[in-house]
Every structure is written in C-alpha cells, then in structure tokens.
DNA sequence: TCTGGGGTCCTAGGACCC
DNA sequence: TCTGGGGTCCTAGGACCC
C-alpha cells in the first residue's frame, strides 16, 4: 500500500494562542515578539496583509503599530507549550502514527485509509482541533512529506480549500507545483534557491522534471539533500514518520542582552543562570553532558569591532551537576573574556550528551557523585513544586532586577499553567 | 536607545593508522 | 627521473528547519 502523509500545521500559532483567550483580537492585526520584545515571530493574517515581515525588528514598526492599532504581545512560551500539547494530543487520535515535528506542526500517517475521502477526513481533524483547543489548523495530504508541505502551504493561501488540500487526488497538481517557488520548498533556503534560479529552475515543477544534466549539477551542489528533494517531488518517499523522538545531541541556552554588558562579574552571573537552566533540561531528559562550551559576542550589527569567542572544555567525567558546570563555565569565560568589549549576547552549550545511566566513573574523580545526584534531585523537586528559581546557586546572582534579565513587557497571563492566572468568566 | 533562540544533518579536509 | 594508498574518525563550517 503506498504511503500517504498528512501535515497538520497550526495557522499563525502564537497569535492564535493569544486569540483563544482574548477573542476581541479576531479580525485585528496581531503580532507576537521574540525574547526581549526584539522582533516579530508570529503574525496574524491582517498583520501579514499590512506588510509586516517575519523577523522584523519591532522598533521599525512603531509607526505602523500606532496607525493600524496593531496589537503587540511579548512571547508567552508557557502558554504556547501547553496549547501545543493539547493540539498534539487531539491530532494523535486521528492516526495510528504521528510525528510531532515542531511546536505547531505534526505529520500524520494516513496510509491504509483505502478509498476513504481524505479531504473529508482532514476537515474532520480541523474541526476537532478547533473545537477542543480553539486553534485553527490547516492540513496538506500527499504521497511524501515534501509534497504534503506544499499541499499545506497551498491550503493555507487558497480560501476555497477551507484549509484542507489532498494532493493525491488533486487535478491541479502540476499547476500547484508550478506555482510553488523553489524557495518555498522544504529543505531549500536562500543559498540553494539562489543557485537553482541561476540554472533556470524557478519552481517545484521545474525541479521535479529536471533533466539528468541538471540533476547532476544539483547533486554536486546540494548533496544527498538535493537528490532526496527531487525524489520526494516525484512522489517517491525518502523520509518516513518518526514516531519516537530521538535523544537530543546537545543543549544550548543563550540570550541576547537588552543592554550590552561589559563587566566580567555580570557575565558570570548570566552564564551561571544559563548553566542552571541547561542543566535542568539535561536532567529532565535523563542525560549527562561530556563537554561544555561558553560563547559570547558583541553586537552583530556593529561589524567594525565584532568580537566573538567560544571555548569548549571536555569534562573528565560526564556530569549532571549544576555546581560543577558553573565552575567550568566560569573558567571558560575567563579565557575568552576581553576587557572593554560591549557584549550583546552570551550562552552555554552542552555537547556529547549521553543517557545518565551510562556515566563512566573517572579514575581520579574525587567528586562524590551519589551525593551530587541527590542534591540535584532535591533542587529540581523544590523548583518544580515551588516555582522555578526558588532554589538557585548564589553564582546566578542575588535577587533583584539585573541588566541582563530578559524582558517581556507585553506578555499575556499564563492562562493555562498557573492557577492564579486562570481566565475568569464574568 | 531598540535586531530571537534552539536545533539537525551533511560534507570536506585533516589526522591518524596499518 | 621521482614520492603509496586506503580506511576511519573527528571537526569545522555550511545549510537548513521552526
């Protein structure tokens, strides 16, 4: 039986989450911003129609915001994460196998539905998600993931599809492919689309039907990815549904500072905080890290004296211990810190993760690993129960506002994850 | 004044080994 | 008057994704 893939993708996800709890926002231009209220990361259709671009820095939009009464939100990841879970749970009821691809997208395996009308089935999925979570979702159906992506994009921009397009039965398949720019194909970014356009391949149909001469050039330039994209466009699947998530290979925590930081001690506090956040993630995933990297840089928009350094330390023994990692991070920082620079961003990365049951004892390791494990368990348990940050290392800085703290000035309440902020019906 | 954050995969080239 | 060659592992950098 030939495989059939569906891609369910929430419409303007972050904006839609805000609208669920604030219905007055329907019909108005709405945008959600990145950390520190920096740039636009989600736009309602009305905001898109005004020409507001993805990633646009918010200070460039102030005139537009006033003129068109654009409603602006800081990001509220607790809300979006929780809403995502609800959407994914709903979707998983409609297929044997589902793959959560991102916070707002999932692939569903719809193979074996035989003669059932999949467009109709897609509409049923959309209404269930809308009814149970309040989130609007669009669905693209096709023989491969790459085609399902295209079907989904087409469904979103063609109102007559009412949000569902099954490419396996569409009589417009060729014209849809011809109407899909190469840069809109999954796996083709700005660099590859530039190359393809230069050799005369402008749309998905051109790419699918490229002759062998062109195919060879594409393969040389784009490697196996290029070959796979062409196969997938022809309807030959190269990617399948991944039902169980692969273990993470690395963890990064980094932030841009609203105001640049010069002092070593402030950077140390910020990094100790990032280490704490990362180590918590590490333990949540039952993993340990074998290396820690620390990086920092000045503003990337000031090219003249751009300063970037990264230092990696390979650990003698894999660890889950926040305190130990903070110490290494401090050492790494001292090596790369240069006095007189105005640092705009810093972060830590844990690499070479392994399952924490596989930690090898070190021959000269004098740390009491059992004791540290117990301490970390207690730390996590307290923070889970009493709120994150209740128990923290002194190295992360004492209480009070810090210049490096991320700001969320326009954040909506934690409607679904905090009893004190639950919406009231009046 | 003000420009996000966290990932994955692939490839080329060097080091090293036999 | 002339340099071995092939396999493997690691790393850095590039490209992509949401």
In words, what does this structure look like?
The protein is α+β, with helices and mostly antiparallel strands. The protein has helices at 13-20, 45-49, 62-67, 77-92, 118-133, 145-157, 173-178, 190-198, 204-208, 212-234, 264-284, 322-336, 369-386; strands at residues 5-10, 30-33, 40-43, 71-73, 98-102, 105-109, 137-142, 164-166, 251-261, 287-298, 308-319, 343-355. The strands form 3 sheets. It has a 5-stranded mixed β-sheet with strand order 5-6-1-7-8. A hairpin with a 2-residue loop joins strand 5 (98-102) and strand 6. Helix 4 (77-92) packs across helix 5 (118-133) and helix 11 (264-284) runs antiparallel to helix 12. It binds a DNA duplex (18 and 18 nucleotides) through helix 8, helix 10 and strand 9.
Q: Nutshell version of this structure?
A:
With 426 residues, this protein is an alpha+beta fold. The protein has 13 helices and twelve strands. α4 crosses α5 (118-133).
Percent range for β-strand residues: 15-25%
The SSE order reads EHEEHHEHEEHEHEHHHHEHEEHEH
How many β-strands, per DSSP? Answer: 12
Counting DSSP H or I runs of 4 or more residues, the number of helices is 13
Distance between the termini: 54 Å
Shape descriptor reads globular
Major sheet size, sense and barrel closure: 5 strands, mixed
Radius of gyration: 24 Å
What structural category characterises the helix and strand content?
alpha+beta
Mean pLDDT: 93
Residue runs with pLDDT of under 50 for 5 or more positions:
none
In the sheet with the most strands, the strands line up as 5-6-1-7-8
Binned, the helix content reads 25-40%
């Amino acid at each position: 039986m030939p495989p059939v893939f569906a891609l369910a993708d929430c419409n303007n996800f972050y904006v839609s989450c805000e609208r669920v709890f604030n219905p007055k926002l329907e019909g108005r231009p709405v945008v959600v911003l990145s950390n520190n209220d920096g740039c636009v990361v989600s736009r309602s259709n009305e905001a898109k129609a005004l020409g507001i671009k993805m990633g646009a820095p918010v200070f460039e939009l102030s005139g537009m915001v006033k003129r068109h009464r654009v409603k602006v939100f800081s990001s509220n990841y607790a809300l979006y994460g929780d809403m995502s879970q609800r959407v994914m749970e709903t979707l998983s009821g409609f297929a044997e196998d589902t793959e959560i691809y991102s916070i707002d997208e999932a692939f569903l395996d719809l193979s074996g539905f035989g003669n059932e009308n999949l467009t109709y089935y897609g509409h049923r999925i959309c209404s269930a998600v809308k009814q149970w979570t309040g989130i609007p979702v669009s669905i693209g159906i096709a023989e491969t993931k790459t085609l399902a992506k295209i079907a989904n994009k087409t469904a979103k921009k063609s109102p007559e599809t009412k949000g569902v397009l099954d490419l396996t039965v569409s009589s417009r398949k060729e014209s849809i492919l011809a109407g899909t720019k190469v840069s809109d194909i999954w796996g083709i970014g700005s660099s590859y689309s530039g190359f393809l356009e230069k050799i005369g391949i402008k749309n998905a149909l051109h790419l699918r039907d490229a002759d062998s001469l062109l195919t060879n050039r594409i393969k040389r330039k784009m490697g196996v990815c290029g070959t796979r994209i062409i196969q997938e466009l022809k309807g030959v699947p190269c990617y399948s549904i991944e039902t169980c998530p692969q273990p993470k290979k690395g963890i990064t925590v980094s932030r841009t500072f609203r105001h640049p930081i010069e002092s070593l001690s402030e950077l140390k506090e910020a990094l100790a905080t990032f280490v704490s956040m990362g180590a918590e993630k590490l333990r949540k995933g039952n993993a340990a890290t074998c290396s820690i990297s620390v990086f920092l840089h000045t503003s990337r928009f000031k090219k003249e004296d751009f300063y970037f350094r990264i230092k990696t330390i390979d650990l003698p023994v894999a660890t889950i211990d926040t305190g130990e990692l903070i110490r290494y991070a401090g050492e790494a920082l001292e090596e790369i810190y240069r006095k007189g620079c105005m640092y705009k961003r810093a972060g830590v990365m844990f690499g070479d993760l392994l399952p924490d049951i596989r930690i090898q004892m070190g021959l000269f390791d004098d740390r009491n690993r059992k004791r540290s494990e117990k301490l970390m368990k207690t730390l996590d348990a307290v923070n889970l129960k009493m709120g994150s940050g209740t128990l923290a290392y002194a190295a992360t800085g004492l209480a009070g506002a810090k210049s490096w703290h991320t700001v969320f000035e326009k954040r909506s309440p934690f409607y679904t994850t905090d009893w004190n902020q639950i919406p009231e019906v009046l």
